C-alpha cells in the first residue's frame, strides 16, 4: 500500500502543474468531492448511516462563505465559518434523527437538501435561482489566490487536512469506540461508548468536511447558485464512498478519483454533437447505478478494503 | 454491609409473555452470585435490565446506593458495571487487543479534540489503555493472539475475549453471561481460576452458568430462576436439595 500513497502524493503535487486549464478545474472539483467523501465514508462506515443529502452541507458551507464575504467579512474567516455552519446544521438535524434506527437519516438529509435548495432558490438575500455573484477571491495575509493553480494546491491541502483529521480520529479512543459500535453496538455501549453522541459526532464531522469543500468551491468559482448542488451530487458522493470502500480514507480518495474520471469521460461523450441535451445527466445516473450494482455484487466491501485483504 | 446491587420486583414482558416476573436479587460487595435456571428462564433478560440494554416493565435497580434503572447503558458502564454478553459478537475488523481496549472506554475520557490535535492527554490515555488491555489479555490467556483479527479466533476464545473486554474497564460489578459455554476442559478450568482470582481481589460478580460443578465451585450464593420467577435463593449446598429446584432444573434432562 505504501507505494500507492507515494503515487497519490506525487500525483497531487505534479498534476496541477501539467494539467491543461480545463483539466485543472476537474482536478479541483475532484479534490472537493474527495473531501466530502472522506467524511461520508466515515459516517457510512462507522455510524452505519447513509446521508443522501450530503451535498446540502457543501451548499451550506459555500453559501456561508459566499454570504459572509459579500458582507465584507475577512475571506479566511468566511472560509472557516463554512465547516462550522455545516457542522452546526448537522447537529440540529442529527439530534432528533440519530436516535431513530434504520434509514431515517438518509431521508432526513435528502429532505434537508431539497428544502435547502428550494429556500435558496426563493430567497432574495441568497440571490434566488441566479445565486451569488462577484464573490472575491480568497486571500490570506495579503496574498490573493487568484489562479486556478492556487486553488488546486489549496484543495490538495484541504484533502490532506481532512484525511489527517479522519485518520487521527479513527486511531484513538473515540475511533475505537466508533469502530466497535459499527459491528457490536450493544457490547460497545456496555463498554461505556456513548453511542448516540458518537454517531452525532461523525455526522457533524462529515458535514464539516463537506462544508469546507463548499467554502473552497465558493472562492474558487466566484459565483454560487442552487443548481451547483443538485441531489445528483449527493448521490455521486455516496457512490464514490461505496466504490472506494466505506470507512476507508484511502478508499474515499480512490473512489472520488475513479468516479470523477469516469464521469468526465462520459460527459465528453454525451456532449458530442448530435447527443440530446439531457444525455449527460441521464448517462451519469445510469453509470452511478451500474457502478453501485457492480460494486455491491463483486466487491461488496469496496475497492480499497478488498485490495488490503488480498495483499 | 449494604448490597452493591439490589434488584427489586424486576418485571419484563415481551408482548404477552413474562420473561421476568417480580424478581428480587442482590449482590453484596465482593460476592460471587450465580444465576441458574433452564433455557428461557430469563437469566439474560435479567442481565440486560441491569446493564440497561432492556428497559424493565416494572421494578427498580439500585447500584451503590442509587437507582440506575433510568440511566443509559454507557453511563452504567462508567459507574463500574461491565458485562460479557451471551450473544454478542466480537467487534469485527479490529484486532483482539483493540477489542479489549474498547472496554477501557468506561474509565477514560479523552475526546475527539485531544485525538485530532494529539494532545498530551490523548497520549497519556493511550498508554494507560494499552497497559490495561495488556493486563486483561494476559489474565484471560489471550496475549498470544493480541494482534490477530478478533473474528479469526475460535468461538471459545471469542468468549474469553468478551471477558477480557469487560475486565479492561476495571469494573466493580462484573456480569458474566455463560462465559464458559463453548470452552473445552483446560480453558474452562482456566476461566474458573480467573473468576476465583477476581473474587479474591474483591470484585463483585454476577454469573450465569449451566455447568453445575462450575457454579458449585465458584458461587457464594445461587439464585434459581424458572419461567421468569425466582424459585430459590441461597448457598449452593442449600438450593441443591430444594425440591422445586430439583424438579425445575437440577433434576432435569441436563
Ligand atoms: N427480545 C425479545 N423479544 C421477545 N421475547 C424475548 C426477547 N428476549 C427474550 N425473550 C423471551 O424471554 C424469555 C427469557 O429469555 P432469556 O434470554 O432471558 O432466557 P435465558 O434464561 O437467558 O435462556 P438461555 O439459557 O437459553 O440463555 C424467553 O422465553 C425468550 O424467548
Ligand atoms: Mg441467556
TrEMBL record, chain A:
Keyword Zinc-finger assigned: no
GO function term, MF aspect, one: branched-chain amino acid transmembrane transporter activity
PANTHER family the UniProt entry points to: BRANCHED AMINO ACID TRANSPORT SYSTEM PERMEASE, HIGH-AFFINITY BRANCHED-CHAIN AMINO ACID TRANSPORT SYSTEM PERMEASE
A GO CC term attached to the entry: plasma membrane
Record organism: Paractinoplanes tereljensis
The organism's place on the tree of life at top rank: Bacteria
UniProt keyword Cytoplasm, yes or no: no
Location relative to the cell: Cell membrane
UniProt keyword annotations, A-Z: Cell membrane, Membrane, Transmembrane, Transmembrane helix
Transmembrane regions: 76-98, 105-131, 151-170, 200-225, 237-266, 278-299
Pfam families reported for this sequence: BPD_transp_2
Protein name: Branched-chain amino acid ABC transporter permease
Gene encoding the protein: livM_3
Membrane topology, as annotated: Multi-pass membrane protein
CDD domains per the UniProt record, alphabetical: TM_PBP1_LivM_like (cd06581)
Automatic annotation (TrEMBL), chain B:
SMART domains per the UniProt record, alphabetical: AAA
Keywords, in A-Z order: ATP-binding, Nucleotide-binding, Transport
Alphabetized CDD domains for the sequence: ABC_Mj1267_LivG_branched
ABC transporter domain mapped to chain residues: 5-252
Pfam families for this protein: ABC_tran, BCA_ABC_TP_C
A Gene Ontology cellular-component term: plasma membrane
Molecular function per GO: ATP binding; ATP hydrolysis activity
Keyword Nucleotide-binding carried by entry: yes
Record's signal peptide: none
Entry protein name: ABC transporter ATP-binding protein
